[in-house]
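Quick one:
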Amino acid sequence: MAMKLSPAGACGNIILTTISDQPAISSEAKFLIAAQVEELLALVVEGKKRETSARRKISSLERRLADLNEKLILARSDKWGRKAEPFPDPDPDDEDPDDREDLLDDDEEEKPKGKRKRKMPKNMEIVIHDHFPDDMSCCTCGCQKKPINSWHSDRLEIVPERLICIRDVHHTVACNRSRCKQEESGKPVAAVAGRYIMADRSADLCLATEVAVQMLHEHLPAYRIEQRFRNQGVNLSRQAICSYIALLAGHFEPVAAAIMRYVMSGYVIHCDETPMWLQNGQKTMDGQKPSGKRGKKRYRQGFFWAVSRDERKWNPNSWPAVAFRFDLSRNGEVAEAMMEGSSARALTSDGYSVYMRFGSKDREGGPLILVRCWAHARREFYRANTAAPGKFAKWVLTQIKAIYKIERRTAGLPLAERLAIRQAEIVPLLSVLKAELEQKAPEAQGRLKSAIQYTLNAFEGLVQFTQDGRFEIDNNPIERCIRGITLSRKNSLSIGNEATGKVWAIFFTLIETCKLNKIDPRQYLHWLANEIERKRGVIEPEAMMPWHCPIGHGAL
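Output:
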């Protein structure tokens, strides 16, 4: 089989064949021409190699440029764009605009705009001011007119917080009669200090609880609370404020531990973690110096680990709860320590490798069912569409929106009905989605390719929620509980040391559990502190959990 020559090779072959057929040309000339033709062909081949290499480099640079352009767009979006991830604007060139409009419509009715009725708690104090006309005398008979009708309007007034000093005077009493002084019963008797939690402290229990609420529920940094006291002429330092909060945390810790046990007794557990910086120069609880850099100073990073139990969508009589733990590490040993003794059979997470080990068959106690989060999968396609808008990414977002639209109808239904709806309506959509992703994967580029690979790799866990009515479609229940830590981290920037992280974990366990149960954290923490004070620390932690608090319900 003859070898196929390139155009330059074929041209050179024709020249050599033509010269060899000319007897008038000498042999020396033929060799010289052949050498020049060969040199010319070598230059052509070298040029082709350089061209091929240049094209490959250009292609690589184009891919690199596209990747950097996507990263730049995403960086701008993260820095100055919207924090929410709304559905992208529909493409007018799509084939089925009617179907697209149906998918974009939400089940929830749009809230009416304009002035709305002001919402006020039922137990709010109401001060009534009666207003009568200036002249109430009758111009005919001269008697006083009687009220026959009235109307009222409400206005809100704020009472600024103020500090008062409570001076406890402890008296010593004795009998003044001479014969009583000689008896044992006649000796002087002194009053005993009655405080328990704040004993030997210059602050009242109410003040300590209030500064804890302001710092960890209202997310005020310690220096701002210090400034508020200074504005009233009191020099209460931030060190004293933090010491009061730490003192309360020691008494609240049994209740936080009870909430952790309650969470771990659930069938399905949601897990997540979020970072927190420890300040420069502070030793950890094991005596080690911090490592790592943040700006020009040295810091060490710690992590808040969160676990939650929320069964309200299929068990309306259950109490939702969330528990936090602070640790300097993000490795698997921390997660295993948290899950020790847990009776959970399923774990919902964002796919972090630490959580994936709980699905291993070699795990002591048996493997857990690993449920993945559709919100994270959707975010990958949302970012891909933000970086490089395309029809396929929008189509995937449309499919996910349709899945969520069906899932919203299952909230509050019995387990059997939830599972039946998912099997009948969501499973077919997932099958179509997976087939399209597998077909698109080989030709996808950039962020879209990463999004497709992420979803396909996690697809086994993403479809688990269609196999059991107790599973949720995403990990948003725990994501929402972490918002409080995120706000405090944003305002306070860092914490002092590992012990402070453990204090925060105790308070956020109580506060976020209150929010889940629609209980006012301020009223609950004051009630809990007063109960511990009244019982001198001898309490049953299970009876002190937020849903047993008699006040503050429905305040949020």
